[in-house]
């Protein structure tokens, strides 16, 4: 019976004036960056790194995440559409009809690459140790990812496959089928990863690259496994043994395992 499940039908917008809307996803994206900013600031304070450096780093990482995630989605998940509407890759609205949509369609794999590129550029421009930046920012990546998946839940997007488990969600905007709340699964896992890593870093110093290896291994193993109970995001994935999200996760997992299992060449920082 439908009453045995959770009916999920929230508005995806906090404010909707027709031509412009403020979405819960945008709020969750903001919470991701604010919470990450607070955690990184604590790490910078330990090294007496000024807040002006953190503010500049935040801009770099924000732009790197947004650009990387956007390009990742457009290139790997919906290239057929965006190859014909290239301006919509960089503009947060559609032309026909004109409507402000925000950047709907962001891929975490592209976001990960974008963050690494932004950190490289920042370290070169401001003469900071690249691996210190990578390990510090890596600590907050699962925290940010948890909030972003909550935004996906509010949007009723990236839904799970049909199921009869008692905690199934009925996404009214999609259909009346009880489905796995895949977004919630990922969000909870990411928050757990953050909690574990944050406490590991409080106990003792970690060798260079540990945080990076821990985060990308953990995040993309979670992503790979949850994809089995997710609906495919693009039609071309229908006949694939594993979908695009899983394929893109494999190299991240391998790189993460390398940094976790290798013999550190550098002493604890």
TrEMBL record:
<feature type="transmembrane region" description="Helical">
    <location>
        <begin position="20"/>
        <end position="40"/>
    </location>
</feature>
<keyword id="KW-0997">Cell inner membrane</keyword>
<keyword id="KW-1133">Transmembrane helix</keyword>
<feature type="transmembrane region" description="Helical">
    <location>
        <begin position="238"/>
        <end position="261"/>
    </location>
</feature>
<feature type="transmembrane region" description="Helical">
    <location>
        <begin position="102"/>
        <end position="122"/>
    </location>
</feature>
<comment type="pathway">
    <text>Protein modification; lipoprotein biosynthesis (diacylglyceryl transfer).</text>
</comment>
<dbReference type="GO" id="GO:0042158">
    <property type="term" value="P:lipoprotein biosynthetic process"/>
</dbReference>
<comment type="similarity">
    <text>Belongs to the Lgt family.</text>
</comment>
<dbReference type="GO" id="GO:0008961">
    <property type="term" value="F:phosphatidylglycerol-prolipoprotein diacylglyceryl transferase activity"/>
</dbReference>
<keyword id="KW-0812">Transmembrane</keyword>
<keyword id="KW-0472">Membrane</keyword>
<feature type="transmembrane region" description="Helical">
    <location>
        <begin position="60"/>
        <end position="82"/>
    </location>
</feature>
<feature type="binding site">
    <location>
        <position position="149"/>
    </location>
    <ligand>
        <name>a 1,2-diacyl-sn-glycero-3-phospho-(1'-sn-glycerol)</name>
    </ligand>
</feature>
<dbReference type="GO" id="GO:0005886">
    <property type="term" value="C:plasma membrane"/>
</dbReference>
<dbReference type="InterPro" id="IPR001640">
    <property type="entry name" value="Lgt"/>
</dbReference>
<feature type="transmembrane region" description="Helical">
    <location>
        <begin position="129"/>
        <end position="148"/>
    </location>
</feature>
<feature type="transmembrane region" description="Helical">
    <location>
        <begin position="207"/>
        <end position="226"/>
    </location>
</feature>
<keyword id="KW-1003">Cell membrane</keyword>
<keyword id="KW-0808">Transferase</keyword>
<protein>
    <recommendedName>
        <fullName>Phosphatidylglycerol--prolipoprotein diacylglyceryl transferase</fullName>
        <ecNumber>2.5.1.145</ecNumber>
    </recommendedName>
</protein>
<dbReference type="Pfam" id="PF01790">
    <property type="entry name" value="LGT"/>
</dbReference>
<comment type="function">
    <text>Catalyzes the transfer of the diacylglyceryl group from phosphatidylglycerol to the sulfhydryl group of the N-terminal cysteine of a prolipoprotein, the first step in the formation of mature lipoproteins.</text>
</comment>
<feature type="transmembrane region" description="Helical">
    <location>
        <begin position="182"/>
        <end position="200"/>
    </location>
</feature>
């Amino acid at each position: 019976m439908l009453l045995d499940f959770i009916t999920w039908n929230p508005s995806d917008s906090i404010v909707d004036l027709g031509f412009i809307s403020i979405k819960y996803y945008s709020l969750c994206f903001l919470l991701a960056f604010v919470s990450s900013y607070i955690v990184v600031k604590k790490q910078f304070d330990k090294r007496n790194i000024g807040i002006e450096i953190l503010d500049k780093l935040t801009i770099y990482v924000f732009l790197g995440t947004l650009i990387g995630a956007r390009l990742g989605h457009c290139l790997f998940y919906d290239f057929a559409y965006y190859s014909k509407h290239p301006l919509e890759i960089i503009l947060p609205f559609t032309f026909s009809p004109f409507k402000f949509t925000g950047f709907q369609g962001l891929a975490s794999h592209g976001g990960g690459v974008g963050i690494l590129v932004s950190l490289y550029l920042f370290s070169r421009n401001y003469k900071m140790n690249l691996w210190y930046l990578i390990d510090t920012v890596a600590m907050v990546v699962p925290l940010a990812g948890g909030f972003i998946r909550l935004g996906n839940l509010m949007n009723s997007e990236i839904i799970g496959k049909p199921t009869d488990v008692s905690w199934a969600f009925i996404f009214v905007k999609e259909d009346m089928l009880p489905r796995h709340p895949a977004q919630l699964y990922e969000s909870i896992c990411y928050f757990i990863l953050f909690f574990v890593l944050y406490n590991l870093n409080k106990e003792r110093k970690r060798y260079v690259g540990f945080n990076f290896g821990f985060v990308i291994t953990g995040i993309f193993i979670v992503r790979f496994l949850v994809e089995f109970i997710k609906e495919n995001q693009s039609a071309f994935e229908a006949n694939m043994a594993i979908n695009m999200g899983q394929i893109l996760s494999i190299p991240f997992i391998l790189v993460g395992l390398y940094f976790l299992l290798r013999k550190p060449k550098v002493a604890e920082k």
